[in-house]
Known about the structure:
Layout: E1 3-7, H1 9-13, H2 26-29, H3 32-35, H4 38-43, H5 45-59, H6 66-78, E2 82-86, H7 92-96, E3 101-103, E4 106-113, E5 119-121, E6 140-144, H8 154-162, E7 166-170, H9 182-188, E8 192-197, E9 209-212, H10 215-227
Parallel strand pairs: 1-2, 1-7, 2-3, 7-8, 8-9
Antiparallel strand pairs: 4-5, 4-6
Helix pairs in contact: 6-10
Bound molecules: adenosine-5-diphosphoribose.
Amino acid sequence: MRVVVLTGAGISAESGVPTFRDTDGLWHGHRVEDVATPEAFEVAPMAVHRFYDARRAALAEVEPNAAHVALARLEAALGNDLLVVTQNIDDLHERAGSTRVLHMHGELLSALCCSCRSRSPWTGDLGDLPPCPRCGLTDLRPDVVWFGEVPYQMDRIYLALATADLFVAVGTSGAVYPAAGFVEHATTYGVRTLELNLKPSEVTTLFDESREGPAGRLVPDWVDELLG
Ligand code: APR
């Protein structure tokens, strides 16, 4: 059975990583256009760096939860037949043991050089304007996809969706495209669809089945069910 799992901020919520649109979510304290657009970086790069530097530093304080661990267990059973597509820029899937993970919105632990376009693993701050390890210029930005930019790996993702038997969306609000459109894309190809969320998403009616509850309980239960 080929499975594609799309994850959003909700899967990391129980680890203590704030979501975006829930009460106390990240976008309640920030205007998206001030920190997550190419224009914001152009006009006020230090504010953007501070925002992502704080989030990168906060990663050291959190751990994967039962939902991440369950998806790693599913990969151990299904191997190449499981693909996790995440909108999250944290590394909690990898720390739980998943290896087949596509970060469609980029990664906090990576820096992208605006001059030479190389990517470098990054754990420290970018706000103190360190040089690019490749070209030496001080032109690094967070390797994350901002509003108005094209998400990564879309060809691979659409191919995986078209050839899957099951598409599962975990902890994502369905407010941001193209990810919010994956359920329709999968349905077009006759793929069964399942939503796991604390509360119904904006696209919940498009799924064949929706289950409500915390990811830390729903995901392990669903994996148990699938592996029988
Ligand atoms: N278990 C399951 N789902 C949860 C939990 C939980 N413990 N806590 C919250 N959720 C759900 C909420 O019900 C909501 O549907 O997680 C979702 C979080 O939604 P958003 O904050 O909108 O996060 P996400 O869907 O990942 O956002 C998509 O928007 O700004 C961007 O680039 C950012 O990747 C992000 C994108």
